[in-house]
Amino acid sequence: MTQEKIPVYNEEYATLRDEMSNGFPADSLEVWDADSERMDRELKDPLRLKAGDSAPMFELPNAVGKRIALEDFLAEGPVIITFYRGVWCPYCNLALSTYQRILKQIKSYGANLFAISPQLPDHSLSTKEKNKLEFEVLSDSHNSVAKQYVQTFINSEASTSEALKLGVDFSSFNDGDIVELPVPAVYIVSQDGKIAFAKSAGADYRHRVEPAEILEALKALTTNK
């Protein structure tokens, strides 16, 4: 059987940046890059929970409003949780797309995958459709779950203003005036409710946890059972 190629986020990131250079004003990219670098300097420890900690249980609506409980899915196997910013974020869409492409391998380990953002369910549905996702995309409207797992941040006024010039209002995707966003991160929760893997590529949201790292951690978890 031919082994499926594992996508490499960093390789596809380089292509994305080329596309963004052609699609966005250079001044806008400079402002956003400076903001992401600022957050990386300020948030030195983006994870609130680490491997070995107990995972907070939660129940959140999915893209069609159905309540999804972490505990229910843990009865089936490990659960991967990835926190992302929103459907308006090209880096999030790229990361979720790469995770979709390893979903078959994730399932082969008996695991499930959740993607969580502060977006309302309608925008979670847009995320699923845009990226052809076959895993649960959940709405954490006030970051109540995210704040238990990761640090949250607010984009600089310059970054937000630059996006508004191009017709993107981050907060309009969320409930009310919520402007806080979760630091992108990936957790793997084992069936006993313990965190087996916890990683963020940093508060610089342009960078993400590689799909290969997720699969390696899943393999180690299931092999050691």
Automatic annotation (TrEMBL):
Coiled coil: none annotated. It is an enzyme of class 1 (oxidoreductase). Transmembrane segments: none annotated. It catalyses: a hydroperoxide + [thioredoxin]-dithiol = an alcohol + [thioredoxin]-disulfide + H2O. One of its GO terms (cellular component) is cytoplasm. Gene3D superfamilies: Glutaredoxin. Its EC number is 1.11.1.24. PROSITE patterns: THIOREDOXIN_2. GO terms for biological process: cell redox homeostasis; cellular response to oxidative stress. Keywords: Antioxidant, Disulfide bond, Oxidoreductase, Peroxidase, Redox-active center. It comes from the Bacteria. Residues 49-223 form the Thioredoxin domain. One of its GO terms (molecular function) is thioredoxin peroxidase activity. Belongs to the peroxiredoxin family. BCP/PrxQ subfamily. Thiol-specific peroxidase that catalyzes the reduction of hydrogen peroxide and organic hydroperoxides to water and alcohols, respectively. Plays a role in cell protection against oxidative stress by detoxifying peroxides and as sensor of hydrogen peroxide-mediated signaling events. This is thioredoxin-dependent peroxiredoxin. It comes from Hufsiella ginkgonis.
